[in-house]
Design brief:
Layout lengths: L1 H13 L6 H8 L3 H4 L19 H13 L9 H4 L4 H13 L2
Helix pairs in contact: 2-6, 4-6
The structure holds heme C.
Heme C binds next to helix 3, helix 4 and helix 5.
């Protein structure tokens, strides 16, 4: 079962859907408080700069925080726990495109 899930997971990101940066911009509004409007991060919140990061890295980071085994952050969790795979992909497309 785990293997099937893992295959589905990889497949859904590699083949699944076209990323929509415009939709990602809308979803990003709730990230601004910590990561900043321009994605440059916020030292007071200990939130790192994410603007211009590779989209695959943004996706794998958010997934890692969502699963909570490899990476944990109780402050950010409420903001990402209900994101769908499509939401995460769209967010990644937008964040990655930020200069
Ligand atoms: C309450 C503050 C807060 C909010 C809101 C928040 N984050 Fe974060 N985020 C953090 C903190 C703090 C870290 C660093 C966590 C760590 O490494 O332990 C982080 C880390 C990340 C990372 C990993 C960066 C890296 O280089 O590894 C990504 C990607 C990210 N956030 C995306 C988002 C997105 C997308 C949203 C909105 C859906 C969001 N965050 C909302 C605080 C926040």
């Amino acid at each position: 079962m785990k293997l099937i899930l893992a295959i589905f997971f990889v497949f859904s990101f590699s083949q699944g859907f076209a990323q929509d940066a415009a939709r990602g911009k809308g979803l990003y509004q709730k990230c601004i408080a910590c990561h900043g409007e321009d994605g440059r991060g916020n030292a007071a919140e200990e939130a790192p700069m994410i603007a211009g990061q590779f989209d695959w890295y943004i996706i794998s980071s958010i997934e890692a925080f969502k699963l909570g085994a490899e990476r944990k952050n109780p402050k950010m969790l409420p903001f990402i726990k209900d994101l769908s795979n499509a939401d995460i992909a769209d967010l990644a497309a937008y964040i990655s495109s930020m200069k």
